Amino acid sequence: MGLSENKPWGGRFSESTDQFVEEFTESVSFDRELAQVDIQQSIAHTKTLLKAGVLTTEEAQKLIEGLNQILEEIKKGNFQWKRELEDVHMNIEKELTNRIGRVGGKLHTARSRNDQVATDERLYLKEQIEEILNLLKDLRRELTKKAQQTVDIIVSGYTHLQKAQPIRLAHWFLAYREMFVRDTQRFLDVYRRLDSCPLGSGALAGVDFPLDRFYTAENLNFARVSRNSMDATADRDFLLEFLNACNITMLHLSRLAEDLIIWASEEFGYVDLPDKLCTGSSIMPNKKNPDVLELIRGKTGRVLGDYVALSTVMKGLPMSYNRDLQEDKEPVFDAIRTLKGSLVGMKKIIEGLKPKKDRMEENAGNLTLATDLANYLVQKGVPFREAHHIVGSLVAYVVQKGKRMEELTLEELKQFSDLFEEDALELLKPHVVADRRITYGGTAKERIKEQIENALKEDF
What we know:
By secondary structure, the chain is mainly α. 59% of the residues lie in helices and 5% in strands.
């Protein structure tokens, strides 16, 4: 034996591993996150080795019992991890061998850490995506509930962060809900593509034992088996797709956070955030800071960084496995923690959010009613561009006089066009204007109710 005899690959080497290399190359400090799925796939691999005649029934039983004992210790937090054993796989295998003897060394037959970690990551992501899907559903439900509660509140919709047209507040909540519906679909797509079992691919070329890979996949609840052993050990597309889905979801959370931060400001005063989800200032007693929302907005950059980091790792790798791929785990773990925390935080914010109806409706009218006056003239036969110019002059008049559109009289309207009649005054009411948007998906009350009905069917 060489001086690296404690290493699984030690027979080849005549010098002890440098301490720097020990510290620089270890991954157990973070890949222990995969411990439970690593044992899950080791048990499945044991069953496949038994089926192939590589193990006896007694050997397989000892391996499975030992693995289950270690699993219980890991769940309880009692397992002792050792950095010198490099990674999660070797820590578990070494402890297993210490407990059950030489038969523990048979566990790695017909398996490489290359196909082992690829399998672990897929198993782990399947579990995490299921949790993320549930958190997305919780958030969508809260948005739907808020929409139900705010159907009769009128608020100004914005483009360019300028008041645009009156909408029902429920329409705004449902708009964000649609974003999270698409996020849900993206994670489902990622799940479907990663649901493929690489175990049995070996280091890169397959293995020279009669393994039934379909049996392994069935035991691990994979939908199918990977079709090319080199691709199976080199592929990290599924992690990139997952990180991209996390990134887009965080972008949506950040946009929602930005709206609420603005709306909670004194200048807008549209919403009141729950006290228990805000913080104060160490120097200014008057402050109520939207820290949860600001951190969600800020943490979006972390997840984008995680996606960029792994993309950079992958861009120049030759086929097939390279040690660079050890860098695939920390970005994924970070993105998962960040996204899950942000989804929980946003759900709590929406749940406790209190819209200020009077303030919203006070700001919902005035110049935002101009488009409907132009459309009124169009319905009287005026070309839209002419109608646009006429009402633009009317807007200039209102601004010059310091009036609100709602205060205009029929006589004033007629100064700009004789086509205005008594019924045009109805268009100076924000709720009337909102309810004229009757196209499918619009902000009219009847359309909002349709959207809520659809949401309830999807989310419950």
